[in-house]
Design goal:
68 residues, 1 helix, 93% helix
């Protein structure tokens, strides 16, 4: 008899739990992941820009004769 209750809980959990979890994922989790991905991409771009600018400054200083 205990197995019947376990099976009922499993079936109801699958029938009602999976759609709820899918809705939560689409509503909140996917948006958070997308936002974090965009922020990481922007941070990566800023870091690349800063490194490129630093490289240009070093090259410019070497060409101008400030640093040898």
């Amino acid at each position: 008899m205990e197995l019947v209750y376990q099976m009922m809980i499993f079936v109801f959990g699958m029938a009602f739990g999976v759609p709820i979890v899918g809705w939560v994922y689409r509503t909140w989790i996917a948006k958070v992941i997308e936002t974090l991905t965009d922020q990481a991409s922007a941070a990566r771009q800023r870091a690349t820009d800063r490194v490129s600018e630093a490289g240009r400054r070093v090259t410019s200083n070497r060409v101008s004769g400030r640093f040898k």
